[in-house]
Specification:
The complex is a heterodimer of chains A (223) and B (413). By secondary structure, chain A is an alpha+beta fold. Chain A has three helices and 15 strands. In chain A, the strands form two sheets. In chain A, strands 1, 4, 5, 6, 7, 10, 13 and 14 form an eight-stranded antiparallel beta sheet that branches. A seven-stranded mixed beta sheet of chain A has the order 2-3-8-9-15-11-12, with no helix packed on it. The longest helix of chain A is centred in the last third of the chain and has 29 residues. Chain B is an alpha+beta fold and 413 residues long. In chain B, the strands form three sheets. In chain B, strands 6-5-7-8 form a four-stranded antiparallel beta sheet. In chain B, a hairpin with a 5-residue loop joins strand 3 and strand 4. The longest helix of chain B has 25 residues. The relative contact order of chain B is 0.11. The chains are: A alpha+beta (223), B alpha+beta (413). Chains A and B meet through strand 8, strand 9, strand 11, strand 12 and strand 15 of A and helix 6 and helix 11 of B.
Chain lengths: 223, 413
């Protein structure tokens, strides 16, 4: 015996309604939309983590969405800067205001970074989309422009190449320089210490040459 | 849009301009008593450009990001060539200040201090990663200094130092105002020379004291344990490291000039100063500025006033003018006693009041105070009485520009 057609319609409508409502309930304060511009102070919230991010300047992005407990900005640019970069940020129990975002591969070195102000002693996690694993010594986190925060205590480079900063308020700067700090680790001793070996060799050579020249000159003067 | 000039193009153009300038000065300069001085002035200016070559190369239009940088052209000779073993640049024995943007070489005093404290065993410097220990880096610095000083002696002071150029400009201004310079007494001048060694010893000792925990495992000054209580590690690293640089007069001069030409943002400087009256800071302190003002006044009156107590000059002299280095030094000032009439004009024109070229009988008359500027050679009116030599070959010698009769015959004919 079939269900009457009117009941099918009712069940179907209710199902669609429930499904739609459940989707919207996971969205943040600002719906992820493909706006091309935003204003300073527009808030991007993560209600489940009690965090918000906003920008100190007007700007634009090609896309912005909330996913897996973080905001993902693609093609982000702030109006006081000519840099365009991607940024994935998560903040827990803190509200952050981003002053600048920086990404450059000038001079064959990769730099990325962000400067922001944090309110509320919470946690921020940044993902700059770096392809290769980085070394902690290539990261630089400063507080209020001059306090160098210690790795392992105030911030940590996580196994997925994201950077987590804990319990800091005030102006914070995060910077990454690709210095290939670890690249010599497995090289032979004479390569790892090639500069000092070369310097010692040059010193010895210079002293020897200078001694020979001096002796020659003195001999010529004596003659 | 971030742009930069090709370093190869800039360096080649610079080299061509310098060569052309040197040739023109040598060919066109008619006044025999000013030729070397003019050449030296030109080379001093060229040296300043060479030291801060990064300002010509770029990159430009980099968004202001960090108070402490970035200044990638600081790495022109650092990380790019020497790598993470020695990323702060080639050590030079003159005040090529570490702190301004665009530098290509680095003041050896900064490196000596920094590699003791705070970077003895810290893998991370300022915008640089180290794969070598402090001891190894110190060995490289000392090695570079020895090579430079054995080869060229204190001629770095006379021909390349930016702060030396500053003092020479003050001297030229004073001459233009027709004011006479003053001289210190011989005894005072000798004592001043010893002051430079006291200065370097004091500041190196301070660096060791601050680094005591890292080197010896004992904290002499509270808060100097790396990774210690929150803020203290960074406070020490930011405020009191490289103690000589907190008082060096060259640093605020370089910073001020860079800010004036727009190569450095003044907010970088003003954001990182601490304490009452800016007693401490990363780019400059009130002590830097005060000493710069005092040295400026003194250098206006006493020629090359700072050079008489400069610790960098003292170090250069240590590696070139004292035994055993003196014996093997390749650049020397030499005197032919048979041609010298003891007229004393060499002593009068010497900017640092060196006296050995007058008092000593003959042979090598280079001394620790001599900056090998060759002013005495240039002004001596007796042919061949004084000469500047390199590896035994005469580079420049005194000429009979006065047309005087030879009053003393050289026995060798």
């Amino acid at each position: 015996m079939g269900i009457p057609h009117s009941r099918q319609m009712r069940f179907g409508s209710i199902a669609v309604l429930v499904f739609t409502l459940s989707c919207f309930s996971h969205c943040g304060y600002l719906q992820s939309q493909t706006f091309s511009s935003f204003s300073a102070g527009d808030r991007f919230s993560l209600p489940q983590l009690n965090g918000t991010v906003c920008f100190a300047h007007d700007g634009a992005y090609s896309s912005a969405k909330m996913e897996n407990g973080r905001w993902i900005f693609v093609g982000l640019t702030l109006n006081d800067s000519q840099c365009i970069s991607d940024l994935k940020v998560s903040m827990e129990n803190s509200n952050i205001t981003i002053f600048s975002v920086y990404a450059s591969s000038a001079d064959s070195r990769l730099w990325v970074g962000v400067r922001y102000n944090a309110e509320g002693e919470g946690r921020q996690v940044f993902d700059f989309g770096l392809n290769a694993l980085t070394h902690f010594s290539e990261w630089w986190v400063t507080l209020a422009g001059n306090v160098f925060l210690a790795e392992g205590r105030n911030w940590k480079l996580q196994s997925d190449n994201t950077l987590a900063i804990n319990n800091q308020v005030d102006n914070i700067s995060v910077m990454y320089f690709n210095f290939d700090a670890d690249k010599d680790k497995n090289t032979p001793f004479y390569i790892q210490h090639s500069i000092v070996i070369s310097t010692i060799a040059v010193v010895i050579g210079t002293v020897l040459v200078a001694t020979v020249i001096t002796k020659k000159v003195r001999r010529m003067d004596g003659n | 849009m971030v742009t930069e000039n090709s370093p190869y193009l800039v360096v080649c153009l610079f080299a061509l301009i310098v060569i052309a300038g040197v040739v023109l000065i040598l060919k066109l300069s008619k006044d025999k008593t000013r030729k070397i001085s003019s050449l030296r002035f030109f080379i001093q200016i060229a040296a300043v450009v060479a030291v801060f070559m990064g300002l010509l190369i770029g990159p430009f239009n980099v968004p202001i990001f960090e108070p402490l940088g970035p200044s990638p052209r600081n790495r022109l000779l650092g990380i790019d060539i020497l790598g993470s073993q020695f990323p702060d640049g080639i050590s030079v024995p003159f005040l090529a200040c570490y702190y301004p943007n665009g530098r290509t070489v680095t003041c050896a005093i900064w490196q000596l201090q920094a590699y003791v404290y705070p970077f003895w065993d810290y893998p991370r410097g300022y915008q640089a990663d180290y794969s070598t220990s402090g001891l190894e880096k110190l060995a490289v610095v000392v090695g570079m200094l020895v090579v430079a000083c054995v080869v060229l002696g204190r001629s770095f002071c006379g021909w390349l130092c930016p702060f030396g150029l500053y003092q020479d400009i003050l001297t030229r201004i004073r001459k233009a105002t027709r004011l006479r310079h003053l001289n210190t007494s011989v005894r005072t001048n000798k004592k001043l020379g010893q002051v430079s060694y006291i200065i370097i010893a004091v500041f190196m000792l301070l660096s060791v004291i601050f680094a005591s925990y890292t080197i010896f495992g004992t904290e002499i000054i509270p808060g100097t344990i790396p990774g210690g209580p929150e803020g203290t590690e960074a406070g020490i690293v930011s405020n009191i490291n490289e103690p000589f640089c907190l008082v060096c007069p060259a640093r605020p001069l370089c910073i001020a000039v860079e800010c004036a030409v727009g190569a450095m943002d003044w907010s970088y400087v003003s954001q990182i100063v601490y304490g009452p009256f800016w007693i401490s800071g990363f780019y400059l302190t009130s002590i830097n500025v005060t000493i710069l003002i005092v040295v400026t006044i003194l250098a206006f009156v006493y020629r090359r006033a700072w050079c008489r107590i400069c610790p960098m000059g003292g170090l250069a002299a240590l590696f070139s003018s004292f035994k055993p280095f003196k014996w093997i030094a390749l650049t020397k000032l030499e005197k032919n006693e048979h041609k010298c009439t003891k007229c004393g004009v060499c002593k009068r024109v010497c900017p640092t009041q060196a006296t050995d070229m007058y008092e000593k009988k003959g042979g090598d008359v280079t001394e620790s105070r001599c900056i090998l500027c060759a002013r005495c050679v240039e002004i001596c009116p007796y042919d061949g009485a004084l000469k500047l030599t390199f590896a035994g070959k005469t580079v420049v010698k005194s000429r009979n520009w006065l047309g005087v009769d030879k009053s003393a015959k050289d026995p060798a004919g």
